[in-house]
Structures are given as C-alpha cells and as structure tokens.
Amino acid sequence: MINAVLVFNNNGQPRLTKFYTQLDTSVQQRLISEIFTLVSARPSSSCNFLPLPPLLAPSSNTAQESNDAPSLVTYRHYATLYFIVISTSTESPLALLDLIHVFVESLDYLFEDVCELDLIFNFETLHAVLGEMIVGGVVVETGRERVVEGVKAQGKVAKRPVNERGRGVGSGIWAGR
C-alpha cells in the first residue's frame, strides 16, 4: 500500500503532499522535513530507495501487522523536482519507480513540457493525474495513455497561454485572469 506521495522542489518547498493514511498534521510536517533532508543530501549516484525515518518507523501501536506499516521511501529526482513515494514493504520498489516515471510522463504529456510553475498554478490537474493512478493508497492504473485519457475526460487539463501571431498573453481567452 502507498502511504503518501510527495513532490518537492530543490529548495524543499512541497508542491504536492498527498497522504493516504491518517497522520497528525505536526507529524506530517516533521516527516516532510525529514524526508526532504534525507533525499536531497544523497548523491545522484545513490540508489533511489531508503528506509523510512524513525519518525514513522513501525511500532506495535501503529499497525496490526508488520506488512501494513510504512517502511520504504522511493524517490526520483527530475530537473528541479523530487517525486517521493512512501509505501509498505509489500510494494515493489521497482514498480514504484515505474509509477513515478508514468506520473511524470503523464504530467509532461498534459502540460507539454511540464515545469514547476505548471504544478503550482494547475494543481487540479496534478491531483487529477494522481487520482487516476492511485485510489486510497492502491495503484489502479499505470498506463500513461489511459491516465491522460481519464484526466482529459474529467476536463481538468489547463493549457498555458501561447503567444500566437504576435498576440500577447493579455489577449484572447486569458485576458482578465
């Protein structure tokens, strides 16, 4: 099971935080800080898997079974963004890397060369893509074409204004926004 999906920029500012297990807000904030510190300090030649920081390490009170407790941090660094998945030991780390890659490919396809500003200003699309892929902590779709099709069907895709035929950004449908 996937417990959380996080996206940070290189400065540690969260661009997406989606928790599938209930945690106190203060624990979430400390976890976000700890995970970014761990992930950003690793050299690019290191593997993309980490054990979970002690803050959420399994204890006898947090999970009924050891397989149900969050235990693994899987991440991938693309340009200026870190994509991070916190999961249980039952999830395959290589499958999670593929999930992250499909997530990024889907965003790239929808935004036509995605950048950090696309994630900031079009967070609805970001959440819609994640919602097409993961429901309640369970991966339901890993095909880019089907994810993109589902998001487009929801009508959650926002396009960037394009400077066409000499018209500025302030003209056309983007005027007044």
TrEMBL record:
What cellular component GO annotations does this protein have?
endomembrane system
Provide the GO biological process annotations.
Answer: intracellular protein transport
Q: Does the keyword Membrane apply?
A: yes
Note the coiled coil stretches, chain numbering: none
Report the superkingdom from the record: Eukaryota
Write out the entry's keywords from A to Z.
Membrane, Protein transport, Transport
What are the AP complex mu/sigma subunit domain coordinates in residue numbering?
A: 1-156
Q: Where in the cell is it found?
A: Endomembrane system
By its UniProt entry, which PANTHER family does this protein fall under?
A: ADAPTOR COMPLEXES SMALL SUBUNIT FAMILY
Which protein family is it in? Belongs to the adaptor complexes small subunit family.
The protein's name in its UniProt record: AP complex subunit sigma
* Natural source organism: Cryoendolithus antarcticus
